[in-house]
Each structure stands twice: as C-alpha cells, then as structure tokens.
Design brief:
Blueprint lengths: L10 H12 L1 E3 L7 E3 L21 H4 L12 H15 L11 H7 L2 H15 L13 H11 L10 H15 L7 H19 L1 H7 L4 E3 L6 E2 L5 E3 L6 E3 L2 H18 L11 H14 L6 E4 L6 H12 L2 E4 L8 H17 L4 E6 L7 H11 L9 H17 L6 H15 E7 L5 H8 L2 H4 L2 E4 L5 H13 L7 H29 L7 H34 L1
Parallel strand pairs: 7-10, 7-11, 8-9, 9-10
Antiparallel strand pairs: 1-2, 3-6, 4-5
Helix pairs in contact: 3-5, 4-7, 5-8, 6-7, 7-8, 8-9, 11-12, 13-16, 15-16, 19-20, 19-21
C-alpha cells in the first residue's frame, strides 16, 4: 500500500482516498464503470513514518480523525503481563505453588523487561543497514510467551526463573541484531538490568552461557510398549551442549532413514547448534514464525528442516517452475490450511527469497503472518465443506456450532499450527525494500540473523570432509591441513571486509564457498594422486620386468 511509484504517488492509497472522498471508485477490471460504496466506515492503522517507512499522503490523512497511540505505561504493562505471570507462578496456585523467593522475583520481571526494552529501543535505532531495528510491544509479549513454555514444576528457585528470563530476552532482542558488537552490547545490557533489579549475587549466578532446550526427553511408552508420545517436550535448562548435540544427531539419523530424498548431513558445531535450538523454540510455540537472514550456505533451510522434524511438523516448500503463478501458490496455501486447520497437524512452510517469483507472493505471505486469512483463498462452497468437516473437532473443543464460530476456530487453528519460516539473504537492498512494503515479514516473526561461521565451526566442517578422506600423509599433517583450511577461509573473509573499507564494494565469501572449496580440494587431490600412482606403478612394474 505505501509503495511510491515513479511519479511520487501511492497508487493503492490514492484509490482508498477516492473511496473516502467520492464514496466510490472506478472498477479496475472494467474501465469506466463506477462502483459506489454505501454505508461504509473506515478505520486505518499505521506505524510512525521514519526508519525507511514511507508516510501516507496528507490528502488521505485529512479524511481521518488522527489518534496517536503511545507506548503503554509501566503500570498498564504490569497489569497485563505481571498479572499473567503472578497468576501462573504464585504461592497459592492450585496447580503448582512456588516458593516465596520465586513469587518475589516474578513481581519484578515486568520492570526488568521494560528496562531492557527501553535501553534497546534507545540504543539500537533503525538505519538503512539495520532497517529492522524496530521495537514494540510484540517483543515484550514474546519474552513472556517464551517463559510460558517452561513447566511450572521445573522453576524451583529464583535463579532458575531469572536465567529463563535472560534466555528469552536474548532470543527476542539479541538474535535480531546483525553485528557481533551489537549482540555483545545487548547481552551485557540484560546482565546489567539483572544486577540493577535483583542484585549482584543473582547476576553472578546467572552469568555465563545460557541454553534452554525442549527436545531432550525420551519417548513415552505405556506398560505394553505402545508409544504414547514420540516427541515429548519440556523446555528446560541445559548446562552442557554435548548431550544436546548427541540428541540432535540422533534425530538427524532418524530423519535420513525416513527420507530417502533430501538427506541432511549437518555438522552441528556450537554455533549451528545454537541456531537449531532457536528455531526449535519457535517451532514448538503457537503462531511461532521466523525470519532467518544469512548469506547462502549458512544452513538456514537445513536447520529448519531438522528443527521441524524434531518438533513433529510436516515440512512443505513450494516448487518453482517456469509457469508457477499466483493460482498455483493459492493451491499450495490451501493444502497448508487444510492440513493445519482441518487435520490439526503442525506445518512448517519454508519460503526462501529464491521462490519470490513475483513480488505479489509476499503480499499473501504477509497476510498469513499478520491475520492468518488470505483474501479470496477459498470459494464459499469449498469453505462451507471445510467447516462441515471441522464440526467434530470443534465439538470436541466445546465450540458452539455456528458458521461464525467454526470459521474463527478454523483460522485460529491455522495461525497456531502453521509456522512460516522465511529464509532470506541480506545481500543487496531487496530484503529492506520488501520489509517496508510488507511489514508483517518483520513484525510478525522472530528474527534470527546468521553471522559468519566462527573458526571453530569452519574447523569442524573441514574435519567432517577430511577425516574420512584417504590421504597419503601422517595424522599430524592431516590435522594441520584441517586447521589451515579453516584459517584460510577466515583470512579471506577478513580480506573482503578490508576490501569493502577501501573500495566500498562488497565481495561475499559464504559458507557455501567454503563447502565448495573442501569438495573441490578432495576431487583435485584424488585426481592428482591417482595420476601419480599410475605413473609410479608403471615405473615399478617396468623396473621389476
């Protein structure tokens, strides 16, 4: 709607203005035919312009009574989230009463969250390179939403509670940032706020690495050996990542056994494992959708597939062809809606920037994220049939059997079960342009920005390729070669930054380049070695003869 054309007009908003001014507009399908809109009321909603966002024309703005909605006060936010948290974790809860220490710590959580929010929004301001640095009430709700994933029974003391809160703040605020310096500042800010609100002793106890995982439990079986829950979930703190890596690799092996096409061969070094846990966290939340941003080969799609499999989600990705159009996209979205809303099965919809054949595709993805409803997706007869099939599930959920209630139940179920994962590249200005046109891509997702692989990760990947590769050399030389490969890639990455500083031109060296380098090395080594070996055999055989 706010896109400005070459003549400085916002076409869609001009049509809206005409509807308000003239009580109608010309039919876009039949030029010259005037359509009258009678007895219509209009309510508009928009964010403040700035930070790359376009303002709307004054000719449209003058048609409305303008109301500026400011950030709610601390008291209002505390009434919302503080009341929910106090009700969930109280000393008199009929489900599970907590200790006095935990109840006292809960009373200060809203204050601490607001403090982190204010410091972040004042420091991390939007720029052309950091266009998505926008902070609002959704961030606060996501922090508390993540805390609700933890079972009451595991929150045994105030240290555990504050460690959980710190983890959720880092997932919501820190993961969205695009540089290591910004992330470091954000993590330090969270610890400073903990020290300010809870004291130095608590801050010291919750410092250090902090990980919460929800897929560490073993399958649940009954007395007869029947599996009751194949993937039980419990969002709990883990001190060591090694058991998490072992569990994730077991899931990867199981995925490869069940899927003969598209097998996963992930090297789960610490950085990759952290991203896996972040994606898994959202896949297990109602309405948990993500925007994963990183250069090609970072592992966005592969990690999403593994995290979705761990969560028990059905994984779907559109197949782009030469003739793929909006009608084909609608058919695919219908399949997703019927699976999530009618069957009640969780779905992961992976959508990459390579699949944006038309910019209009993003409008429908934006609608899925923002409202859960896509305009004109289902014809009336098809929708009636879906709602008819939905009646048994609605009756089980104690929903009053009316068409309006069934429709709401269907779309609520879709929003809860359908997890959209956008895998985008930050190269160029396409991502920032699309985010301005379709704000739901950023506002309605949890953003996770993939930085360059650390040297430890590069070394782990080189070990996977070179360790099992047969080479005529000592083990020490082989180990040195693996370290050298990782070091070379790190040096080239640094050289690209120096090149940009000198010439203001970007040259990208991606993880995909590194993988290609390793594969090419193995191929060239084998070809050269086989050639030398053939010559040696000829010489040796000739000498014997």
């Amino acid at each position: 709607m706010p896109v400005i054309n070459n003549w400085g007009d916002q076409i869609t908003n001009e049509i809206v203005r005409q509807c308000l001014d003239e009580n109608g507009c010309y039919n876009l399908d039949k030029p010259g035919e005037w359509r009258i809109f009678a007895d219509m009321g209009y309510i508009g909603a928009m964010v403040h312009p700035g930070g790359g966002r376009n303002d709307i024309p004054h000719r449209l703005k003058r048609q409305f009574n303008l109301i500026n909605v400011t950030m709610p006060s601390l008291g209002a936010i505390n009434n919302i989230f503080g009341s929910i948290m106090s009700g969930r974790l109280s000393t008199t809860s009929p489900f599970h009463a907590v200790s006095e220490k935990v109840a006292a710590a809960v009373g200060k959580l809203t204050e601490a969250t607001i403090e982190v929010y204010q410091r972040t929004s004042n420091k991390m301001l939007p720029t052309p390179a950091k266009f998505h640095y926008s902070w609002n009430m959704r961030e606060i709700s996501r922090v508390f939403g993540g805390m609700f994933m933890a079972n009451r029974k595991v929150i045994t003391d105030d240290v555990y509670l504050i460690r959980l809160w710190r983890h959720e703040c880092e997932r919501v605020f820190s993961d969205k940032l695009i540089t290591s310096a910004d992330k470091e500042w954000e993590n330090k800010t969270v610890l400073v706020v903990i020290e300010q609100v809870y004291g130095k002793d608590i801050a010291a106890k919750v410092a250090g690495q902090c990980y919460f995982v929800n897929f560490m439990l073993e399958p649940v079986f009954d007395d007869e050996g029947v599996c009751l829950d194949e993937r039980p979930q419990s969002y709990e703190y883990v001190e060591n990542l090694e058991p998490v890596r072992t569990k994730a690799l077991a899931f990867q092996d199981k995925f490869n056994e069940e899927n003969k096409v598209g097998k996963l061969e992930l090297v789960l070094f610490e950085y990759a494992l952290e991203h896996l846990m972040r994606i898994s966290r959202c896949m297990c939340q109602d309405r948990g959708s993500m925007m994963l941003v990183g250069v090609g080969g970072s592992g966005k799609q592969s990690l999403t597939r593994l995290a979705s499999y761990i969560a028990g989600n059905w994984i779907f990705q559109i197949s782009i062809t030469k003739y793929y159009s909006v009608s084909n996209l609608f058919e695919d979205i219908k399949v997703l809606y019927k699976t999530a809303g009618l069957k009640g099965k969780p779905v992961t919809f992976i959508f990459t920037d390579a699949e944006v054949k038309e910019e209009g595709f993003l409008e429908y993805v934006n609608q899925i994220l923002a409202t859960g409803e896509v305009s004109n997706l289902f014809p009336k007869d098809e929708m009636d049939a879906i709602l008819g099939d939905l009646r048994p599930a609605a009756k089980k959920a104690k929903i009053v059997d009316t068409m309006e209630n069934l429709s709401k139940f269907f779309f609520d179920r879709v929003r809860n079960m359908l997890h959209v994962v956008l895998c985008m590249s930050p190269v160029g200005d396409k991502l920032s342009s699309r985010s301005r046109k379709f704000p739901g891509l950023i506002n309605c997702t949890t953003v996770d920005w993939f930085l360059a692989w650390p040297e430890e990760g590069l070394l782990s990947v080189s070990r996977k390729f070179i360790s099992a590769f047969t080479m005529e050399t000592s083990n020490e030389s082989k180990q040195a070669l693996m370290g050298h490969m990782a070091k070379v890639h790190s040096l080239v990455t640094q050289a690209t930054l120096d090149y940009f500083a000198s010439y203001r031109r970007n040259v990208y060296v991606t993880p995909k380049s590194y993988l290609s380098f390793l594969k090419t090395y193995c191929i060239v080594y084998k070809d050269q070695f086989d050639g030398i070996k053939a010559l040696a055999d000829k010489i040796n055989n000739g000498a014997v003869a």
